[in-house]
Design goal:
six-stranded mixed β-sheet; alpha+beta; Gyrase A, domain 2; elongated
């Protein structure tokens, strides 16, 4: 039995040392370099409500993404029909979908075959015959629309997560809400406006040729030629730093997008010392870029990001190697953010900020102070009650409570969990639950002692008979906490984390650790009376 006590003491000491090991970076902010390089150095992460930061609710404009899909499909269908020499007229994208005219039955038959073979997502929404001509309207199948909307939201969430991770924010909370919304929580963010721009930028990179055959002045008056569009860029005056709007007449057709990008990095110009973004295409993109530049030597290629022309250099020669650069009057932060969004990929649809809340660090510190006071006052009241009502046995239970808090905080640090204000509330609840198990044990020991049992028999009966009741109550609470963690969001999750860890730790300290102390005094010290 004495050997058993020693083994249990060794297990307890090892677990406590492990908790203190992971808790050390939080307790000792200025650790030596050796520790930082070779040992765990993460402190307990504080949530948005404790250290301040941003809370955003974003809405994904899936309708806009579907419009873009229909626009690309229209152009692709037009090119396909021309390649297959199928006669058609007036193909265009409308609110209802894609409409076109087929002048004869042969053209209709060839069109139906192409539609079946190459466009499984499209179906004929409306078809009528007038004077021998078929007027056809196409739309995307309803089932496919639902799938596409779900995929757009999922892809947007993943892209935003990649951008935030590269931005360097620790413990961000990014989760879907409803069908088309995303909740983003950024604890400790120092520059809210920069973070919003980084998250909300669509980052659609396109390469288009300038329309140098038609007059820009006429286009600005409203006479935009078919197949072209007016886009705008800007020029910065060196002396004043003022930005001047610069219009461009650009071909509508996109020759290439940023989907083929492999990397994007900030670089400094040797000549002017200005920041720019160097981009590199993957192998397939490099081949495509070489073909495009080779076919358009001496023409101007506009580099367009989210509808803004950043530069329009003249293609002097075929560019091989798959590298290009985006120049402009970027600050270093702007260039870094642009590189981040290009590496993370473009959002499949624009996002709109529906709700924005900023929690200042002073409010966060106030929450921390109040939370610590609640833990201190709640813990002190529990300790006083246990010490007064259960005497020396109560002091043993109080020691277990303190150990429980150490294990809980150490586990939070080890698993890099986030401590929130509701999480602190969970700690206060765990303190009460930790002594609740000892209350059941102590009352059973009292009852056994009143029945004339010896100290050893009373302790054995107290722990043995109360254990099933303690296990039952803790398991049911643990199940509830796990459901809160699985289905809850934000504050609810923070509460569930500390409650879950606290329940497991309290079972260990209240049943396992306190039993070691009682066994030591009953078996080693041979006491005949228990102060309970």
């Amino acid at each position: 039995m004495i050997k058993s006590i020693r083994i249990r003491v060794a297990i307890t000491v090892l677990i406590c040392l492990g908790a203190l090991f992971y808790l050390t970076p939080t307790l000792v902010p200025d650790l030596p370099d050796f520790w930082k390089k070779n040992l765990p150095s993460d402190r307990i992460h504080l949530g948005l409500d404790l250290q301040g930061g941003m809370h955003l609710v974003l809405e994904v404009d899936t309708a806009k993404a579907l419009e873009g899909t229909m626009e690309r499909t229209t152009n692709d269908l037009k090119d396909n029909l021309m390649d297959k020499r199928v006669r058609f007229r007036n193909i265009e994208r409308t609110k209802a979908g894609i409409s076109l005219e087929l002048p004869d039955p042969a053209s209709r038959g060839a069109f139906d075959k192409i539609l079946k073979d190459s466009y499984p997502d499209l179906e004929v929404a409306k078809s009528e015959t007038k004077e021998g001509r078929d007027l056809v309207t196409l739309k995307i199948k309803d089932k496919r629309v639902a799938e596409m909307k779900k995929f757009i939201v999922e892809q947007s969430l993943e892209t935003i997560r990649n951008r935030v991770d590269q931005f360097g924010i620790s413990e961000p909370e990014i989760m879907p809400q409803g069908e088309d919304r995303i909740v983003v929580q950024l604890p400790g963010v120092k520059d809210p406006s920069r973070a919003k721009n980084l998250i909300g930028k669509t980052a659609l990179l396109e390469f288009k040729l300038l329309d140098e055959e038609h007059s820009l002045d006429e286009a600005l008056k409203g006479n935009v030629p078919e197949g072209s569009v007016v886009l705008h860029g800007y020029r910065v005056e060196p002396e004043s730093g003022r930005r001047t709007d610069v219009p461009y007449l650009v071909r509508s057709k996109t020759l290439m997008t940023g989907g083929a990008l492999e990397n994007a990095q900030v670089k400094i110009s040797d000549r002017f010392g200005a920041a720019y973004v160097g981009i590199k295409f993957n192998s397939q993109g490099a081949i495509e870029f070489e073909r495009i530049t080779g076919e358009n030597v001496k023409k101007k290629l506009a580099i367009v990001l989210d509808g803004v022309v950043h530069s329009a250099p003249v293609i002097q020669e075929k560019i091989s190697g798959g590298q290009a650069q985006i120049t402009g009057t970027f600050t270093m932060d702007e260039a870094k953010d642009l590189a981040i969004v290009l590496r993370a990929g473009a959002l499949p649809a624009p996002v709109v900020i529906l709700e924005e809340r900023t929690v200042g660090p002073s409010l966060g510190q106030d929450s921390i102070n109040k939370g610590l006071w609640s833990v201190a006052i709640g813990g002190l009241l529990v300790i006083l009650f246990m010490g007064i009502y259960y005497k020396w046995s109560g002091l043993i239970a109080n020691s277990a409570v303190l150990l429980n808090i150490i294990l809980l905080m150490g586990t939070l640090a080890a698993f890099k969990a986030t401590l929130t204000l509701p999480g602190i509330a969970g700690i206060v609840l765990v303190i009460g639950m930790a002594v609740d198990a000892n209350v059941l044990i102590f009352e059973r020991i009292r009852e056994e002692l009143r029945n004339g049992k010896t100290a050893k028999m009373a302790v054995d009966a107290g722990y043995g008979k109360a254990f099933l009741t303690i296990l039952d109550s803790n398991v049911t609470t643990l199940i509830a906490a796990l459901f809160l963690f699985g289905f809850g969001t934000g504050p609810v999750k923070g509460f569930a984390v500390t409650l879950t860890i606290g329940i497991i730790a309290s079972m260990f300290t209240a049943v396992f650790v306190t039993r070691i102390v009682f066994d030591h005094f009953v078996l080693n010290r041979k006491i005949s009376r228990i102060s309970v």
